[in-house]
Design a protein that fits this description.
- The complex is a heterodimer of chains A (about 100) and B (about 140).
- By secondary structure, chain A is α+β, with helices and mostly antiparallel strands.
- Chain A contains two helices and three strands, in the order E-E-E-H-H.
- In chain A, about 45% of the residues lie in helices and about 10% in strands.
- In chain A, strands 1-2-3 form a three-stranded antiparallel sheet, with no helix packed on it.
- With about 140 residues, chain B is an alpha+beta fold.
- Chain B is built from four helices and five strands; from the N terminus they run H-H-H-E-E-E-E-E-H.
- Chain B is globular and about 50 Å long.
- Classes of the chains: A alpha+beta (about 100), B alpha+beta (about 140).
- Chains A and B meet through helix 2 of A and helix 3 and helix 4 of B.
């Protein structure tokens, strides 16, 4: 009867080294088999494609700052005044004509 | 330059804005209606923008030119002495400079700046309607709408 021994991951029959077959491997413990099975089911983590950062939403048009408001109303006021004077001048010329 | 206008400008504005007034006055001297007429009408409205004027006080608030607003107030104190205060607001690219008696200079900020801007808006809207008969939003004469 031959004697099989395993040493350093190698199989020896009657002292002679033979190739180690898969069937020679001891059965995998249940806990390890279960673990391996779960690992196999777990898909490797894939790095997500770089997500393009969305362009910032169009900014809401900010209301005029206090300074801009003052400048705008000043210009409009002066425009009103100049226009009124021009109208008056034109009316005077029409009357003269 | 009309001496009365000159006196008023000196009193209210000071010497450094004489050139602006002179320019405006000369430009319209041939017209029946003058800058001064319009400015006076506007100022009546401007004086009401900050609430009722105290009894015995005379207030002026008006847009002098493209970059200057004037606040002027006169009154008599308890002893009957005439008092007056003139504030000039200058529009600069970086802010609004307040020039008070003294003279004292500082850029206005916070609520004061907000209130000033709001006052100029109300001034424009009300003078558009009441002095120029125009819709402040469209600029059209009311009769044209």
């Amino acid at each position: 009867m031959s004697e099989t021994i395993y040493r350093d991951g190698k199989k020896f029959d009657d002292g002679e080294q033979v190739d180690l077959q898969a069937s020679d491997l001891p059965p995998m413990p249940k806990w390890l088999a279960s673990y391996a099975q779960r690992r196999g089911e777990v898909k490797p983590v894939e790095l997500a494609e770089p997500v393009a950062v969305p362009a910032p939403a169009p900014e809401i048009i900010a209301p005029l700052s206090d300074l801009e408001l003052a400048k705008t109303t000043t210009s409009l006021t002066m425009y009103n005044r100049e226009r009124r004077l021009l109208e008056e001048e034109a009316a005077q010329e029409d009357m003269a004509a | 330059m009309n001496s009365l206008l000159k006196k008023m400008v000196t009193l209210i504005v000071g010497d450094d804005t004489q050139a602006a007034i002179k320019k405006q006055s000369t430009k319209t001297s041939k017209t029946k209606l003058t800058d001064r007429d319009l400015l006076r009408q506007e100022s009546k409205i401007g004086a009401t923008l900050f609430g009722p004027v105290q009894k015995g006080h005379n207030r002026e608030f008006f847009c002098l030119d493209e970059s200057t607003w004037i606040w002027h107030e006169e009154w008599r104190d308890e002893k009957g002495v005439e008092r007056q205060s003139t504030v000039r607001y200058e529009l600069h690219p970086n802010g609004i400079l307040k020039v008070s008696d003294g003279p004292r200079y500082r850029f206005i900020e916070g609520d004061e700046l907000k209130n000033f801007a709001e006052a100029t808006r109300l001034y424009y809207e009300q003078t558009s309607r009441q002095v120029y008969g125009r819709d402040p939003k469209t600029g059209l004469k009311f009769a044209q709408q």
